[in-house]
Each structure stands twice: as C-alpha cells, then as structure tokens.
Amino acid sequence: MGPTWALLLALLSRPPAAAAYFSEERQPGESPLQSPTVLVAIIARNTAHTLPYYLGALERLDYPKDRISIWAATDHNVDNTTAILREWLTSVQRLYHYVEWRPMEEPRSYPNEMGPKHWTRTRFEYIMKLKQAALKSARKQWADYILYVDTDNILTDNQTLNLLMAENKTVIAPLLISQAAYSNFWCGITPQGYYRRTAEYFPTRHRQRLGCFAVPMVHSTFLIDLRKEATQGLAFYPPHPDFSWAFDDIIVFAFSCRASEVQMYVCNKEQYGFINIPGKPQSTLEDDNQNFIHLMLDAMITGPPMAPSQFIHLPPKFPDKMDFDEVYLINLKRRPDRRERMMQALYEQEINYKIIDAVDGSAFNSSTLNEMGISMLPGYFDPYSGRTLTKGEIGCFLSHYSIWKEVVDRKLNKAVVFEDDVRFEGHFKRKLTRLLSDIEDVALEWDLIYLGRKLVNPGQEEAIPGVRNLVVAEYSYWTLAYAISLQGAEKLVNSQPLTKMLPVDEFLPIMYDKHINEEYKELYPKRDLVALSVNPLLVFPTHYTGEPGWFSDTESSTIWDDDLVKTDWSGSQKTVKASQTGTSHQSFGSASRDEL
C-alpha cells in the first residue's frame, strides 16, 4: 500500500470531530441569537376611532412579544382614548416584556386650540417631551430599537418590523399609503425647514420606483436603531441649540438627525400599511373618523385589510337606509370575496342594505332566453369591439331589471343600487344624504341619479339650479351605483326592454334620450327618463382595465348565442379608466390631494 492510500485510510478511520473520547467533551451546537429588543412608543390623543385597528396591527406584528416593551402615553382627550388604551394594556401586559403607562386625565384641551385636531405650539412642545421621554426610556432599558407609530397609522403588513430591521439603517420609515398623495416622508426640504416639492416624490409615493431612499424627512412611523453610535445625539426635546426652523416635532427631529449626521430613509419595497390624512385645525373628531373610514375602505380593496384588536370591545353601529326606502347590493353568488368586502364597506358606513343575488348569465343559452321571452335589440353591436351582447351583459341587465321591478311592485318612492365593485369616495353617506335633502328642498322631479359613471364625451353639463353638485346627465357608461325613483323604475319597466335588450349602460342613455345611435332610439319611442348625475362623483370602480385585481363578469364572458366566442376587455373601451379617455377623476376632497 502506497503512502497516499495509507494517509487516506487514516483519515477515514479517524472519529468525527463531534465524537469526543470523553463524555465531558461532548458539547451541543450553539443556540441562535435572540431577536433584538424593541420599545414601541404609543402616544395617543383623541383617537378612539382608530385605536382598535392600530392596536390590532401592533399585536399582529410577527415579532416575539417578549422582546418588545410598550411605552404608552395619552393626554388631553375628549373621547374614550384613555379607556381603550387601558383596556388593551391590561389584556396584553403579560405578553410583552415591559409596559409603561402614562395617562393624563386632565386637562381635556390645550389653550387656544380651535378643535381636538388643532396643533398649537403648546401641543407641539408637549408631544416633543413625550417622544423624548419614550426615547429616554428605551435608552435606559438598553433597547436595541425604538419604533414610533402614530395612532392613526395602521401597519397591515405583519412583517414590517422585521423588514425594516433587515435594511440596517439608523432611521428608517415604511412608506404608508393615504387616501390622497399625503404620506409619512418628504423628498425635499427648504433651507428654512419647510416642505419642498420635488420630482422624486410622486414616483416614490406611488411605488413607481422601489427601494430604500435617502430623504430629509420621515415622520409618523419610523424605526431608530439605537445600537448605532450616531443615535446618541438624537433628540426631540429640547431642540438642538442651533435650531431655528418651524417649531414642530417632526422638523425638530429632522434637524437633530442632520446635526448628528444621521441619514433618514424611507422604504417602499412593500405595501406596509396606511396613514390617515391629518385634519384641519377646525376639524371635528367625526370628520377625522369619516376620513379614517374612507382609509379603511380603501384598505379593503388594495389590501391587506385592517382588523381590530381581539382585546378591545368595539361599540355597535346602527345602519340605516339614508332616507331611501331600500338599498340594494347586486352580487353574484360565485363572487363571495366581493360580497364580503361590500357588506363590510356598507356596514362601516352604517348603511343598511338588501343583497340581490345577481343573475348569472353564464347559465343561459339561446333556447333558455327564448323561453323567457328575451330577445336582443336588432342590429346591436358593441361600439368598440363590434361584438354582440355577452352572457355577462345579459345577466347584468336582468339583475338591474329585477330591482326596477321590485321597486314598482313594492311601490318604493326611491331606492339606491350598488354593484359589488364600488370604491366609495370619502364622506359618501354624508354627501349623499345632503344631496337628497337639497333635492327635497327645491321639490326637484327626477327619475335616476348616477352616483358613479363614465361620461362618454367629456364636456360641460348643465347644472341643476338650487342643488349643489348635481347636473343633467349626458351619454354615460357604467351602472356602478345610482338612485332610482318609483316613477323612473316604472318608465324603465314599461318600456319592455327584455324584448329588445342591449347592455344596461347603453339602455339607460337611450331612455333619457342622450344616446348617439338614432336607430337604437327609434325602438324606444318614449324616452323621457329624467336622468341626473352627481358631480363630482361619489363612487368609482375598485379596479380599472388592466390593473392587478381587475376582472369583469360582463366583459370577460362569451357572446350570448355562441359559447365558443370568448370576449375580454381588450376590444372595448368601456372599462378603461376615464382619465385615459379624456375625463378626470374628480373628488369632493380634491383640495387634499397633495403631499401635505
């Protein structure tokens, strides 16, 4: 045997490294490191309406609770904030490493404030002191991180804390989405410390560019890595000796970061959560609550949705029908996700409703339709694709027709109809109720009022005298949501549309004599429907053509008399976003659609 083979045999016969000659030498492998310690700072004032969802998001963070300390303070409340926080802390304190609780029962307001959402200089100073106290507590505990989260910021991604830590930044914020352009970062700041608009803001805010970006300001929700040496100089109060900018907690802290040469970052790699738009100085708590409900409804669409804490009792809601005799929600049974979202959306707005199981056009064939006495309007073709009706469009028409028939049979003076793919504008219920009141005040006669639609030929529409935000409807697509009167329902049913059917959003413009096709109109000689529209609109589609999550049961179907001919949106412009064809998305809250 050669020397090489002898060496190999010796190596193979040697016992493994882990196998020791003596039992005392046998050692187990090293255990993994524990997660870093985190102090979560909760500073709440007059946020009883957001706290259940805020606290629910915190408790669902995928992070060991025994490595988290809670530092909670509340002050100057006129609502139930203190009681809610106390209830939650009492329930969860056994789960977390440490809980510090600093309630202030009195006074209930600051001097000279215009309302519970007004930021006076005294309030700014007190919030700085609270944030500094939380920071001092974190340092005293030798916490590795401190996480500040405002109580109207909802972290719906339960991995947010882990993801921020993985970025290894000294100060980093997760980009949060609001109902408008507002978010929790600035891309620019003036030499005087004021906001400066930049070209980078919107691509970052709308996640058209993804990553972690150096910015001069993050606020509301952000993580500080206290292990980093540079954080020793960070402070909220008192302001830095050289500070001369506006007296505001977020600006004071941004200046402190600059003075300590700490770069702030905002990360938008994921959709981490949501932030409510700040109220105006004179805003009421109900205004803020309505803004938050709007944010919650948006979260149901873009996801993940908000969910309340399991440890907090939610007060009951009291839905009503908004001065209508009936509220209808149309939904296909095979679309339970849409049904559940709309049911929750209506409940959150305290709107009572009746579900109408939509007619599923996919179950029809030409023989079935003939037996039902249904025939298509002669010569109808989709104006964009050139196809005839789809089975989905037939099902859609019959679903709406069944409601018109019920309105007539039950002699309902007025009803409102929702499809199940609706995105509500902020303060929807308040605006619609006000509109109905204005209409009643001037004794206006009407048959149908669009609440959401796509105006085919954008242009000036005739305003209704004496009624705010109401116009005479021109040729429009979509039946997302509309109000209908008993007289209007009678006109639609009496026109016998099942014997000359076309898509319901083509039928309605014929009935109010604004359709552009004269041949179609000749088949409906009585075209006196009084059709109006809110302007700006109160509802929009949840998704537009081509967007993630978009699906249409009317467009993605088959033509009514041939299952082999499949259809989709590509041949039609009906489902394309209105702004892509010349009209703009209007909103009652357009003034807030800015970064600030």
How confident is the prediction overall: mean pLDDT? 89
Total number of helices: 15
Query: What is the helix content?
Result: 25-40%
β-strand percent reads 15-25%
Helix vs. strand class: alpha/beta
Instruction: Summarize the biggest pleated sheet.
Output: 8 strands, mixed
Regions with pLDDT < 50 over 5+ consecutive residues?
A: 579-595
Distance between the termini: 84 Å
User: Radius of gyration, rounded?
Assistant: 30 Å
Write out the strand line-up for the largest beta sheet, numbering strands in chain order: 3-2-1-4-10-6-11-8
Count the beta strands: 23
The general outline is: elongated
Task: Give structural notes.
- The protein is an alpha/beta fold.
- The chain has 15 helices and 23 strands.
- Strand 22 and strand 23 form a beta hairpin.
- Helix 11 crosses helix 13.
- The protein is elongated.
- The protein starts with a helix and ends in a 29-residue tail after the last strand.
What secondary-structure arrangement, pairings included, does this model have?
Blueprint: H1 3-13, E1 38-44, H2 51-59, E2 68-74, H3 81-92, E3 98-103, H4 121-140, E4 145-149, E5 153-154, H5 160-166, E6 171-174, E7 185-186, H6 201-205, E8 212-215, E9 217-218, E10 221-225, H7 249-259, E11 264-267, E12 274-275, H8 285-302, E13 326-331, H9 336-348, E14 354-357, H10 366-371, H11 391-410, E15 414-418, E16 422-424, H12 428-441, E17 448-455, E18 470-472, E19 476-485, H13 486-494, H14 504-511, H15 518-522, E20 531-534, E21 539-541, E22 557-559, E23 562-567
Parallel strand pairs: 1-2, 1-4, 2-3, 6-11, 13-14, 13-15, 17-20
Antiparallel strand pairs: 4-10, 5-12, 6-10, 7-9, 8-11, 15-19, 16-21, 17-19, 18-20, 22-23
